[in-house]
Specification:
Layout lengths: L5 H41 L8 H24 L10 H21 L4 H40 L4 H4 L1 H16 L14 H7 L1 H26 L1 H10 L2 H30 L12 H5 L3 H8 L6 H15 L4 H7 L5 H26 L8 H9 L18 H21 L4 H4 L2 H19 L25 H10 L8 H23 L1 H10 L4 H8 L9 H12 L5
Helix pairs in contact: 1-2, 1-4, 1-10, 2-4, 2-10, 4-6, 6-8, 6-10, 8-9, 8-10, 13-17, 15-17, 15-19, 17-19, 17-21, 19-21, 19-23, 22-23
């Protein structure tokens, strides 16, 4: 029985609804506290009538909640699991020229411009979403400031003072996009919503204070410089300090509400979702993994649903939280296990081929057909990301989960795979080969050159004289910034990825140490080891001999 794809969309919708309800409750409480403080301040310092809990406070509170909903809608537009490139003026001009050229000569050289159109459309969509977020922040800031001034302090001209809020919204949106805070950051340890929200409370307060200082100083300087009469009025009333303090307090309060709303969205959307029916039901006995497989195979690889599905798979594979679900993967036909392993290896193989293309210089000459052919030969559909080398590790979190899941399932198959589907289907060899290929190309991008030759081979026939040629690699490195320089973002991500793959391979080797050692030692040509642990097809990077030597080094725990 096929599942309805709307089930996956409802997961995200329910999370956004939960965010809206929680943000409304928190904003209502903070609104009452803020209006109370401003009213008391007005009665004590400005000798004006406080309007706390009056009809103005109630009406202003409703409008303030509307402003928070507008901000939440803007947050919904830009929130994503992966970072996407925005379009620039040069990209649009170059895209138009390239499309025109492809339309003229594309039929002769068999060049399809559909991929370029898709990349340009994706960049335009990302830019439009960020522009909408900026407009939403400015509108929410203007409306929030107007509500605060009108409800509790200002008798005249509250909308003129609301200019503070619009500037605050623009500054907040620019900082938010520049720091890439709209990208979901999944925590290492999954916690409850309340505890996760409490941990970010102090950081939200500090960020709101830093954000509010800039627009407050800017607006007050503009008002005092442009309107000379305002200087006389302010100084005649001896209320300059009160005026600036009130503006700073209002800006800080609005920014604090936005930071809490943003942090709450992060906590809610990064919490684990169980893609399985309840234990003990009939669906758990017949189709326990249909929803998980649909989320892995039918969704976009950079969507939140796909990330949640891989996170759920990684949790089930590595821990005993739902041991019955992990045991159900090793069903008799082996189709479920093979589909899961295929989806786990897909991001790793894509990362391997993209790094290999940069290392070998295929991106320099524009030779992407070789990469496309190699990916299709391994059963994968090629979709170019259309980005630079800086965008290779943008799905680092997804690749790390996939590597850990594949290694954990391979390790558990020794004791939990009663039908031997992991070995019969060739999944073990596929996992080891993919992990070794990704590790080798990642180490090359870091500038490492391993000597994988056996140290115990003695004799003139076993001596292989090699002259390392660094010219081509250094030439490519100049053009592609390879190897990655230390203390850069690319070097840190590549180092983290290599570390995760090493740990995953050691996890497999530690469980199957005897089997791998016997396969290597009992066969002179190492054909048995290649068949059982490296596969029959050509690796994505390097050769079978190199992989076999690396596997021997892992057996001796010489890889770090």
């Amino acid at each position: 029985m096929a599942l309805d794809p709307s089930l996956l969309r409802n997961i995200v919708r329910r999370r956004w609804l939960r965010c809206a309800i929680l943000c409304s409750a928190i904003s209502s409480f903070l609104w009452l506290v803020c209006v109370s403080c401003l009213s008391r301040f007005a009665r004590w310092y400005l000798h004006s009538s406080g309007l706390m809990l009056s009809w103005r406070a109630v009406g202003g509170g409703v409008a303030f909640l509307v402003a928070q909903v507008i901000f939440l809608l803007g947050e919904m537009v830009v929130t994503a699991a992966e970072d996407e490139n925005s379009v620039a003026v040069g990209d649009i001009a170059f895209g138009v020229v390239k499309l025109a050229w492809s339309g003229i000569v594309g039929s002769r050289i068999n060049v399809s411009p559909s991929n370029d159109v898709a990349v340009l459309a994706r960049k335009l969509q990302t830019t439009a979403n960020r522009f909408l977020f900026t407009i939403a922040c400015a509108t929410a800031g203007f409306l929030s400031m107007a509500c605060l001034r009108w409800a509790s302090l200002e008798e005249k001209g509250p909308f003129v003072k609301a200019f503070h809020g619009a500037v605050l919204g623009l500054v907040y949106a620019i900082v938010h996009i520049y720091r890439k805070k709209m990208i979901l950051s999944f925590p290492i340890i999954q916690r409850g919503i309340f505890f996760g929200f409490k941990m970010g409370f102090q950081e939200a307060a500090w960020n709101s204070l830093k954000l509010s200082a800039m627009p407050t100083i800017f607006v007050e300087m503009v008002v005092l410089v442009v309107n000379s009469r305002a200087i006389t009025v302010v100084w005649s009333q001896k209320a300059l300090l009160a005026h600036v303090t009130t503006a700073l307090f209002c800006d800080t309060f609005i920014a604090f509400c936005w930071e809490l709303c943003h942090h709450l969205c992060q906590v809610v959307h990064t919490s684990r979702h169980r893609f399985s029916p309840s234990f003990g039901t009939s669906a758990a006995e017949t189709t326990p993994h249909d929803l998980l497989l649909m989320a892995l195979e039918k969704t976009e690889k950079n969507s939140v649903i796909h990330y949640l599905a891989v996170l759920d798979l990684c949790t089930v594979s590595e821990s005993n939280v739902d041991a019955w679900r992990r045991g159900a993967l090793f069903e008799e036909s082996g189709e479920t296990y093979q589909r899961v392993i295929t989806e786990c290896l897909r991001p790793l193989d894509m990362l391997t081929m993209q790094l290999a293309s940069y290392v070998n210089g295929s991106y320099i000459d524009g030779d992407k057909d070789i990469l496309k052919h190699q990916m299709q030969s391994h059963g994968y559909s090629w979709k170019s990301k259309g980005g630079s080398i800086d965008q290779i590790f943008k799905d680092l979190q997804l690749c790390s989960w996939c590597a850990r899941s594949a290694a954990a399932l391979t390790s558990c198959s020794k004791n939990e795979d009663m039908y031997g589907v992991a070995q019969l289907r060739g999944c073990n060899s596929a996992v080891v080969s993919s992990l070794l290929s990704c590790l080798l190309v990642t180490e090359v991008s870091l500038g490492r050159r391993r000597n994988t030759q056996y140290l115990n081979l003695i004799g003139p026939n076993n001596i292989r004289w090699t002259v390392p040629s660094r010219g081509m690699f250094e030439d490519i490195g100049i053009r592609h910034h390879l190897p990655f320089k230390k203390k850069t973002a690319l070097h840190k991500k590549a180092y983290a990825m290599a570390d995760i793959i090493c740990i995953s391979l050691y996890q497999i080797v530690n469980v199957f140490k005897d089997e791998i050692a016997s396969s290597i030692s009992t066969s002179k040509s190492s054909s048995l080891a290649e068949r059982d642990w490296l596969g029959n097809s050509k690796p994505l990077y390097e050769s079978h001999e190199t992989h076999l030597q690396m596997l021997s080094l892992f057996l001796e725990f010489k890889v770090n």
